[in-house]
Amino acid sequence: MLPKVIRNSLAKANPGFVLVVGFSAVLILMVFLTAVGTLHLEDTQRRFEGVVSERLAKTTLANRMYTAARERTVSLQKMTLLADPFERDDLWVRYGNEAGEFTEARNTLLAMDLTPDERQLLQRQGQLTNIAVPIQDQVVELIQEGKTAQAQHLLVHQAIPAQDRVLEQLKTLYQLQEQGARLAVTEATEQFQNARFWALVLGAARFLIALAAVVLIVRYTRRSGLALMQEKERAQVTLHSLTEAVIRADAHGVIEYINPVAARLTGWSAEEALGKKLGEVFSMVKEDVCESKLDVVSRIFSGTQHDTNSVDFVNAARGGTQYCIEMTATPLLNDQGGLLGTVLVFRDVTEIRALARELTYQATHDPLTGLYNRREFERYLQGALADARARNVEYALCYLDLDMFKAVNDTCGHPAGDELLRQIGLLLKQAVRKEDLIARVGGDEFAILLRQCGLERAEGITEQIRRTMKDFRFVWEDKTVDVGVSIGVVRLAADSGDTKDVFSAADVACRVAKEEGRNRVHVFRPNDLTVTRRQREIDWVQRIGRAISENQFLLYGQWIRPLAGGRKRASHCEVLIHMLDENGQLAGPSAFLPAAERYHLMPIIDRWVVQATFEALRGLPEDAARRLGCFNINLSGQTLCDSEFLAYVLKQFEKSGVAAERICFEITETAAVTNLSSALRLVTRLKEVGCRFALDDFGSGVSSFSYLKNIPVDYLKIDGTFVHNIPEDETDMAMVSSINQVAHIMGIETIAEYVESEGIRAALETIGVDYGQGFALARPEPLDNILQDLRATRIRSLRQGASTA
Prior knowledge:
There is one protein chain. By secondary structure, the chain is of the alpha/beta class. It is built from 29 helices and 23 strands. The chain has 4 domains: 217 residues, Up-down Bundle (Four Helix Bundle (Hemerythrin (Met), subunit A)); 113 residues, PAS domain (Beta-Lactamase), CATH 3.30.450.20; 155 residues, 2-Layer Sandwich (Alpha-Beta Plaits), CATH 3.30.70; 243 residues, TIM Barrel, CATH 3.20.20. The strands form 4 sheets. It has an 8-stranded mixed beta barrel with strand order 14-15-17-18-19-20-21-22, surrounded by 5 helices. A 6-stranded antiparallel beta sheet has the order 2-1-6-5-4-3, sandwiched between helices. The relative contact order is 0.04.
């Protein structure tokens, strides 16, 4: 109520004055209420616009970063598949532009007012990007260097997984912005409704001023509504411009919004889709299961599933077109947790999936024949061995080597060889069963895995393959070539070894088939001595290769002592090679040299011995070297045929400074006779520079004496088979005596091998053999020890000479 003084004054006042005062008071009150409501509404609108604008900007920037990162990966994948350098350069430019777009968006976002969660996500994204970018740059470098296969391998196994982790952070950031935007909209809406409520309450209490107040409130309400409409329009434009497809449905699954990308991927226009059920417009199957019409959204509506993040599907669009998509389905909930609807966000990954499938195919198949490659075949082989052990079933592994492939390459050229391999691949596909696997595992080598096939059945299949290949005629232009095949077959069962063991056994069985005449099948069976022997040789070949690469050879020496009295001779020393195996055990030359001979590794070993011997003799004092005649180095028949070996030896003499008179090369009689012209050329040239030569194992050949006069050697080493029984066998005694006599007539000194007892030594001295070599005279010992003894003897001699003086 009004105070008593004011009531009395109004009672006495002029009614007009009272009316004016009252109207003025009402007007002032109306203006005040209007101002209060207006200020409150404007403050609400400003806060709403600020929040929406900021969230919209953050969402746009996060989307720009995600799109740029994803497109960068796509550009990188395309670069690995393009052969045209200009198209690759265009992709390289786009690749750089996308990096700039990504960096610009990220820097803009970092400059904004961010929450701790947003900064933490950006910091984690930056760390992952710092890991992913160097890998991507390495892929680009490999592409530019023409190493496409390595680039593809690095892209699939490292670059794409690293970039996917970056994309996961960006997706989380995008979802965080969407969640913030929804919360901001909800808060602003509540504030707006609250302001409007109080405006209506005050207007109803004062009906006379409400009319004017309502006009003003409605005016501002319209202005706020217009602002909301504008914000909604901007949100719609943003959704329309996204590269991802977006569909929003209400709580009943009825579509309320669909953007253009979603319209394209579903085949339904916005006008057609609005008001329809999601199941009518959006039909999909799980990509890796192909389950018909898998409706994940209905599970969200039913409450059995709350969210679906980044799941791979195939979307069947209207008209039959299918797209591989990645989809996220998110429910929209009210304050009480009730379902308001759902939002589907999905994107087309058809091209990325196609590229991934292409890269996977290239990584597992031979590009020439389209068959599996060795690595993928070994993976299946490993699975077959596991299955054989688990279920006690049998498989068979076949290893095939073409017999005339080199002839095709030599006579028709490599294009013809490639065409032959393609045709062979087709023939093999037709010759095996549907469930069997074929792979090209080498240049002209193939492997077949016969599933659940016993050895007898496998032998029949491979024999049929052999006949098919024998009947095959390869025609290239005006040439026709018969092509055969050698096949090794191995049984795979519960008691088989690992992948390496069975592959090695099949390979060796194939080698046996080839060495036994080609165009045949060799089946490996338990206790197969031929295959076992070949496997041992192959094992030694691998050990020799390791010893060469890791310098695991050692030099030993065995003294060759003078026997006959009367003429004082200096001792010789034969250099012998030993090898340390993978267990550190010492292996003698008889253990690994036969395998080296068979697989043509002797020239490499002989070069190593020459180089290592010369290096060991470097710096040996001359007076110490004169205490022995020379160091004997063995040369194989393969080395005699090496046209570059002579130049190598001369270079080693020049490099080491070793006197040629200190070196005697030993060549076997069989090697010298077999390679007579090469042997004569090598012997003649090296004797010119001062080297000496010994003919080893003399007497084992059938034409020893007829060839002896043609080979200018200094020593004959009588074969040990005639020496070790001379005390008891008169025939051997006569043979050694005759060899010694003929050699001396020709001016050649003799050396007897296998002097294993005093009786043998005495018999040889009776005959007049010049030198002996064997355990009765000296055992092999490390060459370093022999050289140290020579140096020590020299020092003792010098000291004795000094004391005598």
